[in-house]
Design a protein that fits this description.
By secondary structure, the chain is an alpha+beta fold. Helix content is about 35%, strand content about 20%. The strands form 6 sheets. Strands 7, 8, 9, 10, 11, 12, 13, 14, 15 and 16 form a 10-stranded mixed β-sheet that branches. The longest helix is centred in the N-terminal third of the chain and has 25 residues, at about 160-185.
Length: about 625
């Protein structure tokens, strides 16, 4: 009995072997096996007494096979049927285009299913739902993914059209895969006629919006600091940044030695230096001024270090409120004596020798200086920060940034620094130069929040380069006004969107990539002045509507120029910048003009996306539609 029980616990293949083994041990294995089989086949005498319904419905759901049999009826067929048979008003849910740069994830699922729930509810209310799925086919994410397929090839040697062909093919394949996946979610919509930002008609519509903004004076070009991604080698908009809370930076306290004339003006003696603090040592080669607040108090101190250092005494100029913090950084045993007190206005016009370049630079007044941190004297590099840039413009200071597209020092920063990555070995080299020159008072590393390129996940810098901008400051009022008629759920989203718009004064719309919609500008070969008029843009739009944006790279400058400019006595070259992809997707409302039955007011009933789009698609759509 014990052996038979063990056999019942085994798998089918071993069960018979176990029974035979049991029989072999007793000497009557075959008889026991036959008896077991006969008992198993004995008919149940009660089975005919149970009355069960007879049905052809299968025992198993077999969903993987059967779902496909009715999916079409519930999606594509239903979408077409409701457009023809529903008698209610038109309802438009405008789809925010996902990037065509890979396969779908759970976020895509949630996004599309939420939209589908809304659309199906509106159909049940008798409305005619218009839902045109969109795909964002341009931009760096797609270009990077396409270039990753080139193994063993030098990407920098590729012709622009080679890159564009790779990117287009990659995007179209991604669209096809994503479309099939979305259909498997049973999301209904016009999947046979989606909108894609890489379609010639879409690109032409986008340039129509750009032309309108040019005509109204919203578009301008300026050499100013922008968020620059060395890893992507392009300018970025604020919406393309994410912040790393664990970024480690190096901060330095640096002595900028005053000129003899300046020392005499404030009653100093010997070596007198203005002490500045910066968390970006790599910007010191671009130092062009020191900023002080007109109403803050400053103190000139005499520092005597301990005798073991062998260092002679020197004088430092620091903010009075920062004296205690600065004193704590001095070598152990140092003594500090106050020489005199000065206010910020008394320091205006003093000059000093910049620590890295040796260039003589001024001390100037600025209201943004505080005594909350640092030394109360701010190192200013107008080529590497927005605040510094505005300060430089107001005081006629050179906008200087000796850093190239790869985030490396150029030869203008000095032979010793040329070619070094500013965020890596370049920073270390600058610190070493300061230490060797005897002007480094203190250095320390600290962890803080720092902007990163949201695509490459690597840190960015601020760097002055000639870029194209949209003047958001002029659009704020109308954009905010238009939001009053919009219902936003949840309500805090309204405050979030309004705060982003209010805090923004400009939008950098140019990118240094080839996969995108070109900014249709020409430059005078002699003067460098841009040619960007309604007539020049209209001519390019006509070409692109017919041939797509590849025409910008394939055709000659003469072919792209409007006839009146071909013989005006100037020689032009076409620009190489493309538009920010947020301008691409933010122009999608233009296609609704062709499908909406409304002659005025909003074209769409609903925009539904994640809260990250308050900085992205919601904002770019709001700005372009109010231009």
């Amino acid at each position: 009995m014990n052996q038979t029980f063990a056999a019942l616990q085994l798998g089918p293949a071993k069960r018979a072997a176990a029974r035979l083994a049991a029989g072999a041990q007793t000497g009557s294995g075959s008889c026991r096996t036959q008896s077991y089989a006969t008992e198993a086949k004995k008919k149940n005498p009660y089975s005919h007494t149970i009355k069960l319904p007879q049905t052809e419905f299968p025992l198993r759901a077999d969903a993987a096979r059967r779902e496909k049999q009715f999916r079409h009826r519930c999606t594509d067929a239903l979408y077409e049927w409701q457009l023809k048979n529903n008698r209610g008003p038109q309802f438009i849910l405008h789809d925010g285009p996902p990037y065509a740069n890979g396969d779908l994830h759970i976020g895509h699922f949630m996004n599309k299913v939420l939209k589908d729930i809304i659309n199906r509810y509106q159909i049940m209310q008798g409305k005619r739902v218009v839902y045109i799925p969109g795909f964002d086919g341009h931009g760096l994410p797609i270009e990077q993914k396409a270039l990753e397929t080139l193994k063993g090839r030098d990407r920098d040697s590729l012709d622009p059209m080679e890159i564009r062909k790779l990117a287009r093919n990659f995007a179209l394949k991604a669209v096809a895969r994503q479309t099939e996946s979305f259909k498997e979610y049973a999301v209904m919509g016009d999947w046979t006629h989606p909108y894609m930002t890489l379609d010639p008609s879409y690109e032409a519509n986008q340039l129509e919006i750009f032309k309108a903004m040019v005509e109204q004076g919203y578009i301008y070009r300026q050499n100013k600091p922008v968020y620059w991604s060395p890893s992507s080698r392009t300018a970025l908009a604020e919406a393309e940044l994410e912040y790393n809370e664990k970024h480690v930076s190096t901060s330095v306290y640096v002595k900028m030695q005053l000129t003899d004339e300046s020392v005499a003006r404030i009653g100093g003696a010997g070596k007198v230096s203005a002490l500045v603090w910066t968390t970006t040592p790599w910007t010191l080669p671009a130092n062009r001024a020191i900023a002080v607040h007109p109403d803050l108090e400053y103190v000139l101190i005499q520092v005597a270090e301990n005798s073991e250092s062998g260092s002679a005494g020197y004088q430092l100029l620091v903010g009075k409120d920062r004296l205690e913090a600065v004193s704590a950084m001095l070598p152990e045993g140092s003594t500090v004596a106050e020489v005199c007190m000065l206010n910020g206005k008394q320091l205006e016009g003093l000059s000093y020798s910049s620590a890295v370049s040796g260039k003589e630079c001024p001390i100037l007044l600025a209201n943004y200086v505080t005594s909350d941190s640092g030394t109360g004297l701010v190192h200013s590099a107008p080529g590497h920060g927005q605040e510094d840039y505005e300060f430089g413009l107001a005081n006629g200071i050179e906008i200087y940034a000796p850093v190239d597209d790869n985030g490396r020092f150029t030869s203008a920063a000095g032979v010793a620094l040329a070619g070094m990555e500013v965020l890596g070995e370049g920073t270390r080299a600058v610190v070493a130069m300061l230490r060797d020159a005897g002007v480094l008072l203190h250095v320390q590393e600290f962890t803080h929040s720092y902007p990163y390129d949201w695509r490459t996940k690597k840190p960015i810098i601020q760097r002055a380069t000639p870029q194209w901008f949209a003047n958001v400051g002029s659009l704020k009022a109308s954009a905010s006004e238009s939001l009053r008629d919009v219902k936003i759920f949840p309500e805090f989203g309204r405050r979030r969107l309004e705060s982003f718009v209010a805090a923004r004064s400009e939008w950098c719309i140019s990118r240094q990539r080839v996969w995108g919609v070109p900014i249709p500008v020409f430059y005078n070969q002699s003067s460098g002045e841009p040619l960007l008029t309604a007539e020049s843009i209209s001519h390019v739009i006509g070409i692109i509507r017919e041939r797509g944006t590849d025409a910008w790279w394939v055709l000659s400058t003469d072919d792209l120029l409007a006839p009146k400019y071909r013989s005006d006595g100037n020689t032009y070259v076409k620009g190489t910048d493309t538009m920010d992809v947020w301008f691409d997707s933010g122009s999608s409302w233009k296609l609704l003009e062709q499908v909406s039955e409304r002659s005025e007011g909003a074209y769409a009933d609903v925009y539904l996306e994640g809260t990250d789009q308050h900085r992205g698609w919601f904002q770019s759509s709001l700005l372009t539609s109010n231009a």
